[in-house]
């Protein structure tokens, strides 16, 4: 094992002590080299850390495809396990049914399915007749479609102690439940005790620790508890009663609808009009209302028709209540529109319909408020509840509900964004989140002109929230000048997406963010001016000592990247070969001024242009005044030549080439430096010759 591997193993040990390790490391270092050696050691550890991170990423990427394939295989296996479980459950139920079958149930394999069904029904009836006394009279009154769905022997339990009382026999027909109690003796084990229709019957699944096989039958006004033989029987009876009740309610609903339609048709025919079908345009219904019902008050026949119409509306109320209970909102809205088409004078009926209309509106509103309403976007909402509320003259209310739901979801997503050490990353994520949401909503409602004013107001509000978050989390936490400027540019770039779809909300950015941005820019510029004044106060007009050759080369490369050539100012003597014949404040000013002009150039198209001009003018006026008041020397001359001939033209070109802000300042207040501007052209020619060589 190499020494490097031993060091790595020691760092990964569980008993590793950082303070002790640093002390041991410092003992082997000569005095005066501690800082440099620690920096080198820290750089080596950082390199190892980066290498390990890259290795981990490579391992993750290499195994990512295997992970996806394994997940797909697991999903496939889970689906097959579920299918196998369902198949085994069906096989178990089939085996239990076969075990309960009697020898009389066996039929030849060649009988048809219809004959088999008839034989099973006949066998069920025979079994019932053999076990229960007094049931024959009931069977004689059955309708043609009535049949036995389930029949089982169970235990009746005491409602308080849940102890067994005696066995009972339950028989479930298509619309009736029979209960048989045991007989004291004789041919039959049970006798018919009571019959119950589904109108007064409900079943409850009792879930208790010691009573997992118990069902509760609510038989108005009483209730009984029964214990089933096993879980399969309990499930069959619970599902069987619920299914039979739903089937019966559907049949009753169809009968009521047919009755109401027939009455409505008879009323329309009595007035000489043709009855319009449900779902037809509202104008046809209004035509019947205006032409048919408008003449009812002028004759006795009209009074009779009004009474029939009142009775029809009363029946319609019952039908509407049933439709609402089953959440058939389309039918409910159609019935409410039919009521509105009738000029009903009965206040009680109108009040009842108004109450039911409020119930429908509330149910549709809850459907819009649900989280799943956002999964399909506004298109999914528009397809059902919004259209229904629109038919009820509540389109704006529905859109407002949907937009509030979108706002809640958007705020929840915004709270998940974290403000890291990179504030621009937060600005990009937040602006992208909000702007994409605004674009999506605006695109969804572009074909709804009546609601677009409300949508526009919502878009403006959400953009204001975005600007508030950016102001609170970025602008007001003392960021740098570059962060402030680039935040502004990111927001305006995102607003351009809104302008493309016709939503020019850039004025909101100027209105809400510009004051805070102006304050932040002023604070940053004040810090820059104070720093520059501090360096000016420490100015000694000596060459800038770079100390080492690497520092000198690094600075020359930095100046070259900025577009400045300062090689000519490097000292040519051997003793001072690391010196630059430019003052330290001049070198610092070159960095600051170019960086400031580059940042403020991004704001030149906004209404902060005057503020940016004042910053640039104040910065240059401050330093030019310092140059003008300094004593003349070789360093002063080189500094003036560097600042006036190179830095000033570069700043002016970077900030705004179309204006001559700095040239005007030079020619109006600092004419003594114009000679260096004349040397600029000579310097450019020399640079071109050097480049050609």
UniProtKB/TrEMBL annotation:
Domain of life the protein comes from: Eukaryota
Gene3D superfamilies assigned to the protein according to its UniProt record, in alphabetical order: Exo84p, C-terminal helical domain, Pleckstrin-homology domain (PH domain)/Phosphotyrosine-binding domain (PTB)
Cellular component GO terms held in the UniProt record: exocyst
GO biological process: exocytosis; Golgi to plasma membrane transport; protein transport
Entry-linked Pfam families: Exo84_C, VPS51_Exo84_N
Keyword list, A-Z: Exocytosis, Protein transport, Transport
Entries under InterPro entries matching the protein: Cullin_repeat-like_dom_sf, Exo84, Exo84_C, Exo84_C_2, PH-like_dom_sf
Domain Exocyst component Exo84 C-terminal, first and last residues per copy: 311-505
Family: Belongs to the EXO84 family.
Protein name: Exocyst component Exo84 C-terminal domain-containing protein
Organism: Acrobeloides nanus
